[in-house]
Every structure is written in structure tokens, then in C-alpha cells.
Design brief:
1 helix, Secre_tail, six-stranded mixed sheet, T9SS type A sorting domain-containing protein, 44% strand, mainly beta, disordered N terminus
């Protein structure tokens, strides 16, 4: 008889002990987000070690529900593959205790941001080594105070789950979510035992394994001593080959000046950078063309504007070599004329430069392949640039 009572007593003792001696929460820091490294679920997961990647405390009184905060966290994103009941089981490593929370529904863009509202499901149950998750019912103890004579006998049977949130005294099980196909959700699993692992098994609705499409979340730049520095970030990527960097001057005639290949895992946010070491004098407009692996691409709607001062820097021609058209960036008023010579020294033609001209087009389309000398002549200086025609 007492052997039947002792397990219930030990379970209650474990609950009270856990409340008074919980693990330390992850530190509140600025910059970055654990959600940046969230795993997109494509089915059941096995032996995930929750170590709080990034160690950023992102839960507060407005978005944590019944959780006290982040502890050895694992973040997940999932997309409902079909409509129906979303049920799941989180099985912790023996002896460890997991809590969890679910936020949603979101669209494909907002799922990449830390939730600002309370979760739709949250459990802070403090029972070590016990499964938890979302189920409609389960076979277990129907009454925590016992049954029969003086309540000394266990009460076992079917338990119907109706609660959507629970504190540390809960049983770990919450009501399933009614979801629609295509909706996105965020799942957080806290593990109160450092370096312990857990499994996640889905019942009914399975997550859609399609990776989120490429989403440009930021695009900016700044002028540095080494040139114009561009940076951008994506929320997630699918079939991304990389980014073509395009630039134009005041005429808004964009041309490719570089290419940045796609980053690492398509599941996470990616950060990119590019330096235009030879910007145009004055106005510089930049845009991105994202290229898919099938050759298709999309232009960024955002355009970055930077103003560069090139006074004192060497004059250069680009592209060089050229198939016909090339360009010289100059400081306005620095040179008055541009003379084009063959490599043998024969003068081919002269171009007059306007006082406010900062970019000169050199057209060798009708000229033979070879090397040409571009001689810039000013009141105080002369400069010669070699240009190769392919």
C-alpha cells in the first residue's frame, strides 16, 4: 500500500524542490537573436541538445507566457503542411526537465522575428524525465490526491487535456492547436538540465519541409576609407545562388560590379557584405539582384545611395579589359581634355571634358583589339591610363 503512495509523494517533492532551485536564465544582451539560428522542422527530430545558441535572453513579461525565461533554449520554426490538429510529444533525456512554448500563427515574414505577444501554448511543468507536449488525451493519473480508501490508491485512466497554459505544477500536457495549412509557428524548448537532449515527435499534422523563400530584411551602406561598404541580411533562403551587386551614377544606368555567393544554411538569417573599392565620384546608387540556382532572379526594391569623394585618388578605367565601352572617373575640373593614343603613340582622337564632368565614357567599339593609352591633360597635371580592348 505504501509503495503505491511513495511515487506520488516523490513527484510532489520533486516539484517543490525544482521551484526553489531552478537553473540560471540566459543573460539579457543586445544585438543578435537566438531565433536567427532557429531550425526549421521538416519532421520528427532526435537527440537535439539545447544549449541556448547565441545565449540571448529574448523572453520578457510580455511574450513569455508561463515560462520564467530562456534556459538552455532550442528555437524551431514550423509550417503546417495540412489543416487540422497539431499535436506533438517532447521527450526529454532521462532525468532532465523541459518546458516549452508555441507562438503563432505567423506569415513567412513575421515568423523570423522574436514574438512580441504571449504564446498560444506554454508549459512550465517541473517534473523531470517526463514527456510533455500537445495531446488531446492520455492515459495517466486522473487525480493528484489519490483514490480509494483515504486516497491511498493511484487513480489511473484517460485524462482529457483542455488547458492551454500551465505553471510549474502542471502535468506537461496542453491542448492541441487547430492550424491551417501554410501557417507558420515558432516553438521554443527550454531544457532545465544543461547539455541534455530531447526528441520531438509529431502526431497528425506534419510540418511542411519547404524552405522559406529568400527574404531580404535589410540593405544599407556607408562610406569608408577603403571604399563604399554595403551590407544586407536575409531572413531565410531557398535555392539561392547569390547576389549580383549593381551600381549606377546619376544617370541611374545600373551595371554589375560584383557577385556575392549565398551563405551557409538556408534555414537561418544570413549576413552579407561587399566593398566597392573604386566608387564613382559623387553619386553612387546600389541595388541587388538575387539569383536563384535555376538562373532566375529578382531586383531589390531598396536602393542604397552613397556620395563618394575621389579627389587625390588615381584615375582608373573600368571595365578594363573592355569589349568596347569603358568609363573613367575623374574629379570635376581636374582635367580639360582626354586624348586617346594607340600603343605605338599615334593620336586617334580628343575628347573635351566639361568642368562639372566626373565620369567620362571611352568608346573603343570600332577599334581593333590591343592596348590604348588614355592621356588626361589638365592645367596643373597630366595622367596616362592604359586600357586594353579585347
Amino acid at each position: 500500500m505504501f509503495r503505491d503512495v511513495m511515487p506520488a509523494f516523490l513527484a510532489l517533492f520533486t516539484i517543490f524542490f525544482s521551484i526553489g532551485s531552478g537553473p540560471a536564465l540566459e543573460a539579457m544582451t543586445s544585438g543578435g537573436s537566438d531565433l536567427d539560428y532557429a531550425t526549421q522542422l521538416c519532421g520528427n527530430v532526435v537527440d537535439v541538445t539545447a544549449n541556448g545558441i547565441g545565449a540571448v535572453q529574448e523572453l520578457n513579461s510580455g511574450n513569455r507566457g508561463t515560462l520564467s525565461g530562456e534556459t538552455n533554449s532550442s528555437w524551431y520554426k514550423l509550417k503546417a503542411g495540412t489543416s487540422g490538429n497539431l499535436s506533438l510529444t517532447i521527450a526529454p533525456q532521462v532525468g532532465s526537465d523541459v518546458d516549452f512554448a508555441i507562438w503563432g500563427p505567423f506569415n513567412s515574414t513575421s515568423v523570423n522575428n522574436v514574438p512580441s505577444t504571449a504564446p498560444v501554448r506554454s508549459s512550465a511543468a517541473s517534473v523531470a524525465g517526463v514527456n510533455s507536449g500537445l495531446v488531446a488525451s492520455y492515459y495517466g493519473e486522473t487525480s493528484p490526491v489519490g483514490c480509494g480508501f483515504l486516497g491511498l490508491f493511484p487513480c489511473n485512466g484517460t485524462v482529457n487535456v483542455t488547458d492551454e497554459t500551465e505553471t510549474s505544477t502542471g502535468d506537461g500536457w496542453l491542448k492541441p492547436l487547430e492550424v491551417l495549412a501554410g501557417q507558420y509557428y515558432i516553438l521554443l524548448v527550454n531544457n532545465n538540465t544543461p547539455n541534455a537532449s530531447h526528441n520531438i515527435t509529431f502526431i497528425g499534422v506534419m510540418p511542411d519541409c519547404s524552405v522559406l523563400p529568400v527574404k531580404l530584411t535589410s540593405f544599407g551602406g556607408k562610406v569608408t576609407a577603403g571604399g563604399n561598404q554595403l551590407s544586407w541580411q536575409t531572413a531565410s533562403e531557398q535555392d539561392n545562388l547569390g547576389f549580383e551587386v549593381q551600381r549606377s551614377g546619376r544617370d541611374r544606368d545600373f551595371e554589375k560590379i560584383g557577385f556575392v555567393p549565398a551563405g551557409g544554411s538556408p534555414m537561418y538569417k544570413q549576413h552579407y557584405a561587399f566593398i566597392d573599392s573604386r566608387p564613382l565620384l559623387g553619386d553612387n546608387y546600389y541595388r541587388l539582384r538575387q539569383l536563384d540556382t535555376d538562373g532566375s532572379g529578382d531586383l531589390s526594391t531598396d536602393i542604397v545611395y552613397l556620395y563618394s569623394h575621389l579627389a587625390g585618388r588615381d584615375v582608373f578605367a573600368y571595365p578594363n579589359p573592355t569589349k568596347g565601352l569603358s568609363r573613367l572617373d575623374v574629379v570635376p575640373g581636374r582635367f580639360a581634355t582626354l586624348d586617346i593614343y594607340s600603343i605605338a603613340g599615334r593620336k586617334l582622337r580628343r575628347q573635351i571634358l566639361q568642368p562639372n564632368e566626373h565620369s567620362v565614357v571611352v568608346d573603343l567599339s570600332g577599334s581593333a583589339t590591343g592596348t590604348y593609352l588614355l592621356k588626361l591633360v589638365g592645367e596643373k597635371e597630366t595622367m596616362t591610363v592604359r586600357l586594353i580592348k579585347q
